[in-house]
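Weekly modeling sync, notes
Attendees: S.R. (lead), two postdocs, one rotation student

Agenda item 3: backlog of single-chain predictions. S.R. asked that every request posted to the team notebook include the full sequence so nobody has to chase files. The rotation student volunteered to paste the first one in as an example of the format we agreed on. Action items at the bottom.

Example entry:
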Amino acid sequence: MARLPIESSQGTTVVLDGREFDHFGGCGYLGLAHHPRVKEALTEGARCYGVSAGASRETTGNTRAHEALEADLARTLGCQAAILLPEGYTANFAAAQSLAEDHAVALVDERSHPSLFDAARNAGLELVNIVHRDSDALRRALAYCGSRRAVVMTDSVFPSRGELAPLAEWAELARAHSGTLLVDDCHGTGVIGASGRGALEEGAIGGEQVLLTSTLSKALGCYGGFVAGTRAQVERVQRHSNVYVGSTPIPPALAEAGRAALEIAFGDGACVAQLRANIALLRAGLERLGLARAGAELPVFSFSLESAERMQALEQSLRAGGLLAPWIRYPGGPPAGNFRIVVTAAHSLAQIERLLDALGRHLPGPR
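Predicted structure, as returned to the notebook:
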């Protein structure tokens, strides 16, 4: 059954069925979707360009806003070039289609996002599952490929598990076998790396053997996907991806909003620093309750209780106290589902303390 639709949102709060809740779900890690400068950029973009690009970029849908955002993305991430796609899911399709020109096999971490598996199949690559984060399994799979070039595919961040991919090691393994590492950085952009710039910074990786896909819709609070890498790699997407050539791009107004979000996220470092402070605060409280497990310092905290009935009761108790901390059932997750609690840079100390206090009352003592 579908959840109640959100009637309005102010970033860290949402209104459901006429009632306001502190919201600890979603993926807006840097809290930028409601930033005044981002909304102003969106408004000005709509005044300049209207609501839609109106056509594919290879016909009449290209704008200066799209090209400027691509240049900003490349500069921010330390790449030579970037190319926009309608969303993160289709960015993986575009990347895989470009790589299928001279790669034959896709070696995919078994816990990666479904879009990587779908992208590999769509591109006609032979699909091989790799045991999660297992470098020895990857070595064996690369040896199995022989002279056939392989694309090693993985998420950079496995948020619900609190894990990072072994990026540097897998990039080197791909390079040693003349393959390419394709990294889906949707949950890493704005979160990991010394300054929050994502997988390339975190793993100190890049160059011709690494291709990045990501999204504007999570930490950056906007919408759209992109592929980033060398100039030659991006040109291959432009030439060989039907997904890119045949789709209407994000509205140029959203591209202008994305440019503002990038500037805020990485301009002075304050946004990423606040996110990390809030992550540490929530983690410490959840650890006291026995609900946080060891893992990377990520804004997503996932835990399960012993039964679906108990989890449903907890979710209802939290809602009664004005807190929306969603209990979800997701493919590949625990059969009874799990709580997926997200903290953002925009959450206040009072909101975090309210959540921890409510969890402490309904789940007393470490467990």
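Discussion: group reviewed the output briefly. The chain has a mean pLDDT of 95.
Action items: rotation student to repeat for the remaining queue; S.R. to check formatting next week.
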